[in-house]
Hints:
Number of helices: 11
CATH class of the largest domain: Mainly Alpha
Number of domains: 2
Shape: globular
Number of strands: 2
Strand order of the largest sheet: 1-2
Oligomer: single chain
Structural class: mainly alpha
Helix content: over 70%
CATH superfamily of the largest domain: MetI-like
Largest sheet: 2 strands, antiparallel
Strand content: under 5%
Order of helices and strands: HHEEHHHHHHHHH
Amino acid sequence: MIKNAYTREKLAFSILFLSTLVVVLPVILILIYIIYQGWHAISWDFLTQMPKRGMREGGIFPAIVGTLWLVLGTLIFALPLGVLSAIYLSEYAKDNFLTRAVKLAIINLAGVPSVVYGLFGLGIFVIFLKFGASILAGSLTLAIMVLPIIITTTREALDSVPQSFRQVSLSLGVSKWETIRRVVLPHALPGILTGMILAVSRAAGETAPILFTVAAFYLPRLPKSIFDQAMALPYHLYVISTQVPNIKLEIRYGTALVLLMIVLSLNLVAILVRAQFRKKRKW
């Protein structure tokens, strides 16, 4: 009996390990291939110069700056609104039909194709509000797109904090908001940062929303305000891969490698911050 249980356990571990390899191995191979094809293009000039001759020469500096502007703008609009919405749904809203419908709608919005968000941003921010194709319109569109991710992960983080923490704080006469701010949020912060990591990854890599709201085909200068158009790495990569003939293959993969490095670097910073907060958690 014990031998059979041990055999089943080994078999289950083997299946789980193989399933993990099936998921992880293709991603690693893709990363290795992009690094192998693109590292020759990486240089100081490639990272800091303006594009030249219709993007066949020069660097990708405006696209890097535009991408960072969009990520920053997305977080400025989406993170506070998403966290506050999650706090209300988790801590204040009553469990009724309307609340459950809102929660279901938020989950469904996370699965809406990004091109739909792009068309929505075009109609609302670019045309109706007359922001034009700009960093502001693109950031607002991306913020709406990543809001469901931030709200969902923040709610899960808040729900994971034991109720006993809230009860002890309230029994000492602390108000509900002070309990949330000083007791619940610090313990939920690692989960909130997880949502931020997912939001940054999606916002930095999307092409369809910025295609309608902000991205410029060829703009060899830096944006001067949030009402200017900007180049962005995802759209820039799409353009040089499909619209610009006779461009070197290493430039395409070099651009893809830079985009990956930016996303991974932003994620790494957030992961390190999250790890520091997890070390301080006592449960």
